[in-house]
Design a protein that fits this description.
mainly alpha; two-stranded antiparallel ribbon; two-stranded parallel ribbon; 4 strands; 49% helix; DUF4806 domain-containing protein; DUF4806
Length: 260
């Protein structure tokens, strides 16, 4: 310092280098300067690598997966502590279908038993068919058909008509079609049935315009096995089919006669 001059300003110490926060082993000073590490950490390459490592280690949330479709549930109540909404397998569907058939067959058997019980003390008509007011079934020719038509159209024969309906209604059959066919087979012989069809085409008699048609409907509905609410369309459908097959029945009967 020279005389007469101002004192020189004190110099501030140099800034301290940043210390590493990473623990070092092997006797190395834990507070040693880490300027090189800081530069590496601030590098964009190092930051990108660290970001990729964090994604690899599963820090990002996984996408939500949609639940699998729910299996169909059975609508049949299950007992014994089982789940009421358990999946209905193919075997169960087949078993339920079979049970429905058994129930339907049991209902038919019960209807037949009720009918037999009601007829137990009643006289049973001849299996060859009723003979009422000189009408002999089956009708074998068109002249007999015309005579029976005249009897049904006469209002004075209303009681006779009801007797015929009651007699025809006890003819058996396992369903509506068979009952309809069996009643028609009792009324018409094989030869005359071939000369009748539903609409009267090809120079045949039209069954749809005969008085026998409503007689058939009443007899079928009165049968204990057939449904009382059977529609005219259902009975007519089976009657049409029966007349359409009359030619085949006539041919088959002719062959049987020739064979004998």
């Amino acid at each position: 310092m020279t005389h007469g001059t101002a004192p020189a300003p004190a110099l501030s110490p140099p800034p301290e280098a940043p210390r590493s926060s990473v623990a070092r082993h092997g006797g190395i000073n834990h507070d040693a300067p880490c300027s090189g590490v800081s530069q590496l950490q601030s590098s964009p390459i190092i930051r990108g690598t660290a970001s990729k490592q964090r994604m690899t280690h599963g820090t990002a949330p996984a996408p939500a997966l949609s639940p699998p479709p729910e299996a169909p549930r059975s609508s049949v109540a299950r007992h014994g502590g089982m789940n009421h909404d358990a999946p209905c397998s193919a075997f169960e569907v087949q078993k339920l279908t079979l049970l429905q058939k058994i129930v339907h067959q049991n209902e038919q058997i019960l209807a037949k038993l009720d009918f037999l019980a009601s007829r137990q003390n009643c006289p049973t008509p001849e299996m060859t068919g009723p003979e009422i007011s000189n009408v002999q079934f089956p009708l074998e020719d068109l002249q007999a058909v015309d005579a029976f038509e005249d009897l049904l159209k006469d209002q004075a024969n209303a009681s006779t008509r009801q007797q015929i309906i009651s007699s025809l209604s006890i003819i058996g059959g396992q369903d509506l079609k068979r009952i309809t066919w069996n009643i028609l087979g009792r009324i018409f012989g094989v030869a005359v049935a071939h000369q009748i069809n539903w609409k009267g085409v090809n120079s045949k008699r039209a069954f749809s315009r005969m008085a026998i048609r409503p007689l058939l409907f009443c007899a079928v509905r009165k049968n204990p096995i057939a449904c009382k609410s059977a529609m005219d369309e259902d009975i007519s459908k089976h009657a049409i089919r029966w007349f359409n097959l009359a030619g085949d029945r006539a041919t088959r009967k002719a062959k049987e006669i020739n064979n004998h």
